[in-house]
Amino acid sequence: MHLLKAIAGTAVVLLIFLVIIGFFYEVELLPLHEKLNYEAFLTLMLTALGVMVALFTIFVGLAAIWGYAGFRDVVRDMAKKEVADAVTETLKKYPDSADILRVLRRLEEQADLGDRLRNQAVTSPEPKTVAKASKPIVEEGVEETPLDSIEKQATPIARLPGEEDSHGNSDDQPST
Questions:
Q1: CB–CB of 21/44 below 8 Å?
Q2: CB 104 within 8 A of CB 95
């Protein structure tokens, strides 16, 4: 839009310049000793036209540089604004950090409670000790329970034929 206005303005200035030169030529206000012939007048007009086109080209180049810098700044500002708005809208969809910390603390408390309850359910209570009997004969006849020794708690599993230990020996063969 601005470029079209600049082109139209330059064309108007050029036309006015040509009309003024033509007027001075016809009225003979130019301080010339001789009247210009047609070829000299045409050469003068084309030279003036070339100068005007060169000035217009320089003007358009400067306007392009200035316009590019302005356009770049405007686009950068618009992009910053749009990105800031989009980030703000996106962040509104998520909870804020205070809510997240509150939820994490509550989850941690629930996990601690779960750990305490699990430990109470899984951990066996301390074994109760039985007072010694007053008569030693009573104690002699009492057999040991399987829970009194670890060896009796584990039931050995017989190996199947073909099973060997990590050294390649089976239980039937003595290790050398």
A1: yes
A2: no
Helix pair 38-92, 2-27: axis angle to 10 deg: 160
Are 60 and 6 a contacting pair, CB within 8 Å? yes
Residues 6+ apart with CB under 8 A from 44: 21, 36
Nearest partner of 18 among 58, 37, 46, judged by Cα: 46
- Tens-digit pLDDT profile for residues 8-59: 777 787 778 777 777 666 655 555 556 667 888 788 888 888 888 888 899 8
Hey, CA dihedral for 94, 97, 101, 106, is it positive or negative? negative
Alpha-carbon distances, residue 102 vs 5, 94, 107, 150 (angstroms): 63, 14, 9, 47
Find how far residue 155's CA is from the centre of its chain: 60
pTM of the model: 0.31
